[in-house]
Amino acid sequence: MDILFLDFEGNTMTTVHLTSSDGFAFSAYVAQPHGKPKGAIVVVQEIFGVNAHIREVADGYAAAGYLAVAPATFDRVKPAVQMGYTPDDMQAGIALKAAVEALPAPGVMADIQAAVDYAAKHSGGKVGIVGYCWGGLLAWRAASLVKGLSAAVPYYGGGSTSHEERARQPHCPVLAHYAEQDHWIPLDTVEAFKKAQPTVEVHVYAADHGFNCNHRGAWHEPSAKLALERTMAFFAKHLA
Fold first, then answer.
1. What are the residue numbers of the active site?
2. Which domains does the chain have, with CATH numbers?
3. Residue among 93, 60, 100, 103 at smallest CA distance from 184
4. Residues 6+ apart with CB under 8 A from 86
C-alpha cells in the first residue's frame, strides 16, 4: 500500500513499492514537485538508510522541480532501515553495506534500475542520479551499468576511486564531489581517478567525508552549498 502526503509547498511525497527485474519488491520514497516535473532524479542513500536526511534531500530536488525517487537500497538484506549518525549507527550501516555488496550480481543495481525506470515513466523526462557516501559509489556504478540515465553525480563515494571502480566506463556525463579531509578516500586515489576518467568533472572541497549532511558533525555549509549549486547546474544542463 502506497502512503501519500503533502508538504506545505504542495509537493506530493509518497512511499511506493517497486519491483526489480528479478521480482524483488522494495520501497522507495518519492517526492513529486508541484506542477509538471522538468525531469527526475534518483537519490541514493548513505549507509544509514532512507532516513530523515535523505528524504529532505529528495524533497529539495522536488522543490527545484524534479521528481525525486529515493530507493531503499538496504531492503534486500533488511527492510525499512532509518538510522541516525551515532557510532553504533555507523557500525550497523557498515555491516548492512557489506551484506548488500556481497549479494550476487546485479544485486542492488537491479533495484536502482527499477527506480530509474519508475522515474522516467512518472516524470516523462530525462533521469539523473545522485548518491552520497555508499550511494555515491552506487551512483558511479549506475553511470556504467544502469540504462536510461542522462547524468550522474556521486558525492564522496567510498571505494569509487579504487583501481577496479575507476576503470569503469560511464555512459552518461558525470560530476563527482570529493573532500580534502576525507580519510575514507585518500587524495592520491582521487588524483588517480581524475587521470583515469578525464571526461568526469571532479571537484574537491576543503571539507570532510559527509560534508553535505547537515545531520552530522562533518557538515560543512560552504562546501555543501557550492556542491549543490554545481549539481543543480549540471542537472539543469543534462536533464533539459
1. 133, 182, 209
2. 3-238 (3.40.50.1820)
3. 93
4. none
In angstroms, rounded to a whole number, what is the distance separating the alpha carbons of residues 11 and 228? 20
Give per-10-residue mean pLDDT for the chain (240 aa): 43 85 97 95 98 97 97 98 97 98 96 98 98 98 98 97 97 98 97 98 98 96 98 98
Which candidate, 54, 133, 56, 130, places its Cα nearest to that of 93? 133
Cα distance from N-terminal residue to C-terminal residue, the chain: 33
Each residue's pLDDT tens digit, 168-177: 999 999 999 9
Give the pLDDT score at 7: 44
User: How far is 217 from 204, CA to CA, in rounded Å?
Assistant: 19
Q: Fill in the amino acid letter for 163.
A: H
pTM (2 decimals)? 0.94
- How confident is the model at residue 63, as a pLDDT? 95
- Write the DSSP assignment of the chain as a string of letters: --EEEE-TTS-EEEEEEEE-TTS-EEEEEEEEPSSS-S-EEEEE--TTBS-HHHHHHHHHHHHTT-EEEEE-TTTTTSSS-B--SSHHHHHHHHHHHHHHHTSPTTTTHHHHHHHHHHHHHHHSS-EEEEEETHHHHHHHHHHHH-TTEEEEEEES-TTTTSHHHHT---SS-BEEEEETT-TTS-HHHHHHHHHH-TTSEEEEESS-TTTT-TTSTT--HHHHHHHHHHHHHHHHHH--
Helices 134-145 and 109-123 cross at an angle (nearest 10°) of 70
How far apart (Å, rounded) are the C-alpha atoms in residues 82 and 54?
A: 10
